[in-house]
């Protein structure tokens, strides 16, 4: 093989090592070798590939995890990279598993184009990190509140009677202000100390959740402002949909495949004379949850969605069936926002006009019959509602 021959690379990635394999354009094994996951190791791996020919493409397992560093190194050299999905388990059981076999399998997958996709945009790694940190903080906060309630269930009556009527927020505030030395009973004092410590943890986690939400708010607004302008799409749901889609549109083959990826593609569930569909149980369940939250938000507050749900209900459809239809329609809308250059609405004039007329946000929201937060997000371009914007603009002009 000469230096001008095209070759296909494959990489099986791990925390400390990567195993790189080379095959010819016809699929014949050429060579393989292991390298450390360091800058020097990546440089040596690329030299190993180019020594055997011109890399047409390199298939890498885990481009967003163990293979992220190697993917960046390949991209800096202008070498095309494809993300290789997990091998079929049945096929793996038949041929066995080693780093060498997996590296050659990745190269063959990149050659035939089966079980591969474009690597996710590197900026999505930042969104994923922030989203993961926020969700773990929310989970820890919920666990701490549950621990407090469990402690109070078995606490002495003097403690239980003091905090029995408090709801979660009031309970946390009351515990923060409580001192254990006010109780003569050592058992009661110990319970109060433990509960107050957990309450302080809840306050700390509340601050973390708020900070991480603000970070996601700013980042998602920069990465995909059109997505954030959609009704019911907040920082958390936008972040999850961006992580699922991977930001780069070329990963998505069509709105049907995106719906299937989100577990929102209809699945036939007919029998006899009954013709119906149900929600898919496959796909990314976190993305499906994001679509579900958007659908619930729209069913509660979005007038067109409420009217649509009412029509479907009158037609005899159940709430789960209506949610299935809504999630499929929302998936179609999200796909369009992710893959097309849609210009977000310009609502900048609304706030400027309101301030020129010395009208408070609360007064405007009361007149229009919406929450001040809804109007604030509309003014900042963080939500899209053309009907409300036109009504608001007309009212400001007449004010």
From TrEMBL:
<dbReference type="GO" id="GO:0003677">
    <property type="term" value="F:DNA binding"/>
</dbReference>
<dbReference type="InterPro" id="IPR047650">
    <property type="entry name" value="Transpos_IS110"/>
</dbReference>
<dbReference type="InterPro" id="IPR002525">
    <property type="entry name" value="Transp_IS110-like_N"/>
</dbReference>
<dbReference type="InterPro" id="IPR003346">
    <property type="entry name" value="Transposase_20"/>
</dbReference>
<dbReference type="GO" id="GO:0004803">
    <property type="term" value="F:transposase activity"/>
</dbReference>
<dbReference type="Pfam" id="PF01548">
    <property type="entry name" value="DEDD_Tnp_IS110"/>
</dbReference>
<feature type="domain" description="HTH cro/C1-type">
    <location>
        <begin position="350"/>
        <end position="384"/>
    </location>
</feature>
<dbReference type="InterPro" id="IPR001387">
    <property type="entry name" value="Cro/C1-type_HTH"/>
</dbReference>
<dbReference type="Pfam" id="PF02371">
    <property type="entry name" value="Transposase_20"/>
</dbReference>
<protein>
    <submittedName>
        <fullName>Transposase</fullName>
    </submittedName>
</protein>
<dbReference type="GO" id="GO:0006313">
    <property type="term" value="P:DNA transposition"/>
</dbReference>
<dbReference type="InterPro" id="IPR010982">
    <property type="entry name" value="Lambda_DNA-bd_dom_sf"/>
</dbReference>
């Amino acid at each position: 093989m000469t230096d001008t021959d095209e070759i296909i690379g494959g990489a099986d990635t791990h925390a400390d090592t990567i195993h790189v394999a080379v095959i010819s354009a016809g699929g014949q094994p050429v060579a393989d070798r292991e390298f450390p996951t360091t800058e020097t190791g990546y440089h040596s791996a690329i030299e190993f590939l180019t020594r055997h020919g011109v890399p047409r493409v390199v298939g890498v397992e885990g481009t967003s995890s163990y293979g992220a560093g190697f993917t960046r190194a390949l991209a800096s050299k202008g070498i095309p990279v494809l993300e290789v999905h997990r091998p079929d388990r049945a096929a793996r059981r038949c041929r066995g598993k080693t780093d060498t076999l997996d590296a050659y399998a990745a190269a063959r997958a990149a050659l035939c184009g089966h079980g591969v996709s474009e690597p996710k945009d590197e900026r999505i790694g930042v969104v994923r990190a922030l989203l993961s940190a926020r969700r773990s903080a929310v989970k820890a906060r919920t666990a701490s509140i549950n621990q407090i309630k469990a402690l109070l269930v078995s606490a002495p009556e003097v403690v239980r009677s003091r905090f029995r009527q408090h709801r979660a927020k009031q309970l946390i505030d009351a515990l923060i202000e409580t001192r254990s030395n006010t109780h003569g009973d050592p058992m009661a004092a110990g319970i109060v100390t433990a509960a107050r410590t957990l309450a302080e943890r809840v306050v700390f986690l509340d601050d973390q959740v708020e900070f991480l939400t603000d970070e996601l708010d700013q980042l998602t607004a920069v990465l995909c402002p059109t997505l954030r302008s959609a009704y019911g799409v907040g920082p958390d749901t936008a972040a999850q949909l961006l992580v699922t889609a991977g930001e780069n549109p070329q990963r998505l083959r069509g709105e049907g495949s995106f719906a299937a990826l989100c577990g929102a593609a209809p699945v036939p569930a007919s029998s006899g004379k009954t013709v119906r569909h149900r929600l898919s149980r496959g796909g990314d369940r976190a993305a499906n949850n994001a679509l579900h939250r958007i659908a619930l938000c729209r069913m509660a507050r979005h007038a067109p969605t409420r009217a649509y749900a009412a029509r479907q209900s009158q037609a005899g459809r159940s709430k789960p069936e209506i949610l299935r239809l809504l999630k499929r329609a929302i998936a179609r809308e999200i796909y369009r926002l992710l893959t097309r250059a849609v210009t977000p609405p310009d609502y900048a004039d609304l706030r400027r006009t309101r301030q020129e007329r010395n009208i408070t946000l609360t007064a405007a929201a009361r007149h229009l019959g919406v929450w001040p937060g809804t109007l604030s997000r509309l003014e900042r371009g963080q939500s899209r509602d053309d009907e409300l914007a036109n009504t608001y603009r007309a009212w400001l002009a007449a004010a």
